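Morning!

This is the sequence you dropped in the shared folder:
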Amino acid sequence: MQDSTQTQPLAELDINANHLTLLGTAHVSKASAEAVATLINSGEYDIVAIELCPARHQSIVNPNHMAEMDLFAVIKNKKASMVAASLALGAYQQRLSEQFGIRPGEEMMTAIELTQAQAVPLKLIDRDIGVTLKRIYSNIPWWRKLYVVSGLAASVISNEKVSEQQIENLKSGDMLESTFAQFSDSADDLFRPLISERDEFMAAKLTQLCHEHRHKKILAIIGAGHLAGVQQQLASGVNDPAAQLQQLNFIPKGRQLGKLIPWLIVALVLAGFALGFSQSQSLGWNLVLDWVVINGGLSALGAALAGAHIGTVLTAFVAAPLTSLNPTIGAGMVTAGAELYLRKPTIKDFENVRKDTARLAGWRHNRVARLLLVFLFSTVGSVAGTYIAGFQIFEALTSIE
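The structure's back. Tokens below.
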């Protein structure tokens, strides 16, 4: 073997008459990509497994796959936040990669290309990124959710240069963990769904793979931050991999109280209007005006900050006060629909979305990315407006003599 493999963390295990080699890599490292090439080109392995889910694999083998995406369906099915998060995570990785002249996930791309050229079976063993992000979201309190959003935004805005030594240090971590860790002093509440669960998931997938095959040599290429966890899980044994995979793919339902809060706020606001009108027509209309100006104004401000069309900004101002009184329809759905109608993305926008989102200016320039920003910013503005206007109404009513 060449020196490149000797510098990468390796582990060897025997499972169900199969010999399994775990290779720990950094997702932005030329040395890792060279080690992958060396091992696959050795011709010793019958199967290669990689730390990718179908969605991330698709983004690599078909970079223009977003051109096939129905943006309105994405918004309607409440997946806009997930798409935006995926782009932000990719932007952080792209920023690191451009500093050192290596493609994002170079070692995974190398594995895909070489297995295809050599007709070696390729298996995807990581959990879907959407499931991981949703489980993170359900695992942390609401105030920590703000940190997650801040971290994703920071990964796009930051222009800080990263040393090559820091890149190599990613061998002891994980790309997703590193992205989130940069904005938080403690990522303990993220660790379980982000790292430990994925260790368990990949161990279960590899165990399942070993049960399906016998007398095979399998190479598993995973982030070095997962190596110890996956190795420990495999050494301990996974008794029922199918059941474990099902459990780790389960998305917990939101708390009932969280679902009731928006309706409770609506009831309180409407009760405030009724109480205001019962006192005087003037007070009632002043409360309505406060609601419209604050709620609509902040949602419109969010849309404007996202670079929305003037028509979309006006739509936000009109729609937000109404949608806030109906929790089943978000202001972002209306504003995104308006933006999509007024500025339909071109094929070029879809083709360049991953490249453009690597820079802050690109999010406002690219129509696909900007549409997601309009959705998110107008939604945040409307939510903020709901609480601020609600307190304003409460204050006005309690000040009545």
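Headline: The beta strands are 10-15, 18-25, 47-50, 122-124, 217-223.

More detail when I'm at my desk.
O.
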